[in-house]
Amino acid sequence: MKRCILSAALCIAFAMALPAAARRYLPPVKEPAPALPADADPDPSPEGSAALTPDGEATLTLLSGGEVLTLTMREYLPGVLAGEMPASFAPEALRAQAAAARTYAMYRMAHSDARHPQADLCSDPACCQVWLSEEALRQRWGESYSRYSALYAAAAEDTDGAYLTWEGEPILACFHAASPGQTESCEALWGTAVPYLVSVDTPEGEADVPGFVTTAELTPEALRQGVAAVCPQADFSAGPEAWIGERVTDVSGRVASIRIGGAALPGTKVREIFALRSACFTLEWTGDRFVFTVTGSGHGVGMSQYGANVMARSGADWKAILAHYYPGTALVNAPA
């Protein structure tokens, strides 16, 4: 039986930077680069903890449009929130997103990224968090600029300075759009166990998420070419009806591996090849084409944004939302 063996270098490169085409889903919600930087310590010591600093006093550097900007966290966060979560989401979900985005920024400030050594973060959603300038937002929103910008500024101000820690250090606060009942664990996806990035229940479903279930249709030739590009040893000599083999799922319901042309591919790799919204999918032959049926959107690790919105609309506050999706973490500097 053939098995597609991906090199360690390829696996690391894939984890560090998913192609932009594979990261796009349900705009304007986006996910930050789902990777542990090379120098990350998943079980950090409490020494060297970041100070409890209000957003107006904390500064960071941001690479955007080829220019390195120096911003306060207060200036930075509304532009992130505007790119990461719709203004129509419940206020408590926006506050949870603000705290997660702040925490993610602080983590990046503590762990330099070789992709932009001149700045703490960048505005490329394929690498870090989205960030939109005031000019970009005025162009996007027009006469609604004041109303929308006030919503995002309020979410940041209401959580001023608050961030999540594990043993005293800011956590890698990954987030994604939507999960099919369970979020994904960091260990299952990237092979590194992180105690606060584990699989948890999440409440969103088809009624809550536009495009929660999507399909992608491929001709036999398109499927063959996509798989052969990464697994040249795959065997497509039989008819298309024989190409699909065993599909193995992990505890979250996502595909751990699937055999195509006798070669076993990771579900994340299949997602990348065919730009699927998530790795929770089925694949079937209909007699004239292959059909992927995909549930959820994003890598699945950390906070589900649509799940946070459902929790908020059900009465959970932003602190409870964060505690649910990042279990065992401590919320530091949270306003009363």
- The tally of beta strands, per DSSP, is 14
Strand order of the largest sheet: 2-1-3
**Structural domain count:** 2
The proportion of residues in beta strands is: 15-25%
The average pLDDT score comes to: 87
- Structural class comes to alpha+beta
Main sheet overview: 3 strands, mixed
Runs in which pLDDT lies below 50 for 5 or more consecutive residues are 1-50
Query: What overall geometry do the principal axes of the alpha carbons give?
Result: elongated
Helicity level = 25-40%
Radius of gyration: 20 Å
**Intertermini distance:** 59 Å
Write down the secondary-structure element order.
HHEEHHEHHEEEHEHEEEHEEEHHE
Tally of helical runs? 11
Task: Describe what you observe in this structure.
It is a single chain. By secondary structure, this protein is of the alpha+beta class. It folds into 2 domains: 31-173 and 303-332, no CATH class; 213-295, no CATH class. The protein has 11 helices and 14 strands. The strands form 5 sheets. It has a 3-stranded mixed beta sheet with strand order 2-1-3. The protein has a 3-stranded antiparallel beta sheet with strand order 5-4-14. The chain has a 3-stranded antiparallel beta sheet with strand order 7-12-11. Residues 1-50 have low confidence and may be disordered.
